Please model this.
Amino acid sequence: MSRIVLHNYFRSSTSYRVRIALNLKGVAYDYVAHHLRHGEQRNPAFLAVNPQGLVPTLVWSDGTVITQSLAICEFLDETIPEPPLLPADPAGRVHVRALAQMIACEIHPVNNLRVLTELRRRFGADASAIADWFGHWVSETFEPLESILASHRLTGRFCHGDVPGLADICLVAQVANNARFGVDMTRYPTIARIDAACLELPAFADAAPMRQPDAE
Ligand SMILES: N[C@@H](CCC(=O)N[C@@H](CS)C(=O)NCC(=O)O)C(=O)O
Model:
């Protein structure tokens, strides 16, 4: 068995998701950093691993290359069932997946580094316009997410009951990204409460961007 390798970047929220999942599952891995602002994700050696040039990319112990953070998390959950990242019942599973996808499909893709880079390059967006764009797309989803989490009968200490899972993984990584763009989290008290509860756990805290070897 070879070592498991995670290609990632400390600031990348999608990488942060996978670091949390690996920690929750107790999986040791080698950390390979690619500096996204220096364009290292487009180096030929990395493109040979993942032609999409995106982190996270996980190379499993048998050499299998796995991309896409939610697919990686579900692979880990299926390969190492304990502790589970998804509830056992279909209703719970679909709820947690929907919460995770609200963040992963509705916020992250429009606020990704390469999208912000194109806004600057094509439309001359300055730092203030970028922060405004970022905050707009966060609020488009965080407002309904806050409302769902505040009122849903399944919400507990975490997004679903008292066990952290896939939705919490996405939530924590997004909240960390929000801080970089000055998003006012007082508007989202339930999300902030769940974020704080997660960060009390070493699996989440140890995966935080500033605790990674390439942190600046
Ligand atoms: N849907 C993918 C998104 C991966 C992604 O876009 N990662 C970003 C970092 S958070 C990246 O590698 N960006 C490189 C770039 O923008 O050039 C996932 O969930 O893994």
Observations:
- The CA atoms of residues 31 and 105 lie 26 Å apart.
